[in-house]
Known about the structure:
This protein is of the alpha/beta class.
Amino acid sequence: MVEAVTRPTRLEISKGAVAHNIRTVKDVSGADKVFLTVKSNAYGMGLVPMAQAAVAGGVYGLGVAVLDEALALRHQRITAPILILGISPVQYAELMAVQHIMATVVSLDWLRIAEENLTGEQPLPVTIGIDTGMGRIGFRDRDTLAEAIQFVRNHNDKFEYVGLSTHFAESDSADTRYFEMQLERWHQLTDGLPKPKYYHVANSGATMYHATEVPHEVVRVGTVIYGVEPSRGELADGKNLRPVMALRSEINFVKRLPAGEGISYSHKYTTSTDEWIGTVPIGYGDGWVRKLMGFNVIIDGQYAPIVGQVAMDQLMIRLPHEYPEGTTVTLIGKDGGLENTIEDVAQHADLAPWEVTTGLQARIHRVLVN
Length: 370
Ligand SMILES: *Cc1c(COP(=O)(O)O)cnc(C)c1O
């Protein structure tokens, strides 16, 4: 997809806010090494610029969902450790080894086939994934897990035994029963087995609220570093986190309309009096969904509602008064005393916060700011 760099619409990533949140996570949890999950285009914010901001801001490594994301980072000369969180097709084992990309391994068959395919020129770093109750991927019984670890250690010319991991299904709510059940299973499955270089089990919730209960020297986090309080206010207020992204554009057409004029497809909005209407070059083709009709964007420190249907590439807002073309419009972020958060947008659109941002299309230009 084409990235529209000639259009004023852009997603800004604040390097300072990313670094601040990394420090906060380390302070709160005592974590020494942070893997920032940059899967799905860094939760939609921009894979490469976010990885650059994170490495500069003090993360140890990066977590991705699929090998292609890891290769895209290597292609941009990002040399930090990369962990693939999902299952990688085994035929790419040698490519991962050569690129120093850590595989998550969740079956003995995978290890056996990889062992045959690996040249041993570079050992493949592996983390062994354990399913303690997420029900997604990972070993679920101790014997097979022990066998997998043994296999890795027996073939230390081909593999490097780097990690043991699990993932929590619920670590960010006041009801901790499910979390505790998973933690208990973790101990049942792993206590007494050969130790890897590190355990990494904590996502944002476990890192922020359960650090003393889980191995937390190495954590894998996205949400908190991206400035979203994982429990949505239930367990903390999130005031020590800073929003890391802003979505901004400009009005590129301004007009005054008399009462009774329809705006956009199907005329879902009709002016009720003399109104100043501004056009903004962003639409549902950018992932700014049609449910956001009626949402207040910010112009010159004042709210301006989106009026009429959001079109594919453009939308209209009702201005407080006349503004010149080129005036900045803030869809997400701060302007003057006002702020729209990702959560505000999510709530209006009836989506989860990361559904909003992962939906922001590649056409939106991503830029790093201080
Ligand atoms: C996405 C993901 C994380 C990070 O989760 P957050 O809640 O955003 O911190 C950690 N581990 C795995 C396996 C993941 O898929």
